[in-house]
Specification:
Blueprint: H1 2-120
């Protein structure tokens, strides 16, 4: 019986050692899980910050696009105004040429009239 008691005691000590090892391994695993969870939370927070920054960048890009469209429209309006001014200048030039021709014709008619009046007198 003394041998059996010794064997039982040895088995109990081995079971205790195995339980202690299991508890320590479980605690280590629990700490590793906690550390992994903390790292996961940090990564999730980083992704959220990245998402927020992407949103901000997208908004800025949309504002730049709108501003570029407005500037493009303004440039088109300036180009139209320049084109209209150029057309008006051409029309004024044509009118000036016409006026000059008319003045030349009136001068010629005035000379002819003066000759006729002098010849009649």
């Amino acid at each position: 019986m003394a041998g059996s008691t010794k064997e039982i005691r040895t088995l109990i000590e081995e079971i205790r050692a195995a339980v202690n090892t299991t508890v320590m391994a479980t605690e280590g695993g629990s700490k590793a899980v906690d550390a992994g969870l903390a790292q996961f939370n940090e990564v999730a927070a980083s992704f959220k910050r990245i998402g927020d920054q992407v949103g901000t960048t997208t908004e800025a890009a949309q504002e730049i696009e709108l501003s570029t469209k407005q500037q493009s429209t303004a440039v088109e309006q300036v180009n139209l105004a320049i084109s209209n001014a150029a057309q008006a200048t051409k029309e004024m030039e044509a009118s000036a040429v016409q006026t000059l021709q008319t003045a030349g014709q009136l001068t010629s008619l005035a000379r002819d009239l003066t000759r006729l009046i002098q010849a009649s007198a």
